[in-house]
Amino acid sequence: MDPALRTRYVFTITAHIGGVTSAGEIGTGVRRIIPIIGGEVKGRDVNGKVCAVGADFQIVRPNELIELEAKYAIETDDGAVIYVENRGIRFGPVELLQKLKRGEPVDPDLIYFRTVPRFETGAERYRWLMESLFVGSAARHADRVVIDVHQVL
Description:
With about 150 residues, the chain is mainly beta. Helices cover about 5% and strands about 60% of the residues. It has an 8-stranded antiparallel beta barrel with strand order 1-3-4-5-6-7-8-9.
């Protein structure tokens, strides 16, 4: 029998983003920095807000594959602070990725956008976030990124 991978939906992060700052071509692609300016977290186990600190640091490869590394914080409704480090990739047909760059709507099902979030907190109630692996399925919109986070069981 093949081992089965199971996940459990935990919460959705909606991160509002600011304008793109580009450091230009760095030899391996174009370095971009996108500030995270707020948002919300909603789910069964964690609810709160995305703090207006942090950014998504990206490298856009020549084939338009984007490597992402976002670092930011969440403050839960009960006052705990959770640091988030979220790495991932976004890729799809070039014409659709170009539309996203211009801020035009694109059906999220047509873009492969997956992440691996890691969490750190000193809050005892949320320490379980540091004791599991998580995967995210994400969608990019003009002013926000929406990530459905699943715990790998």
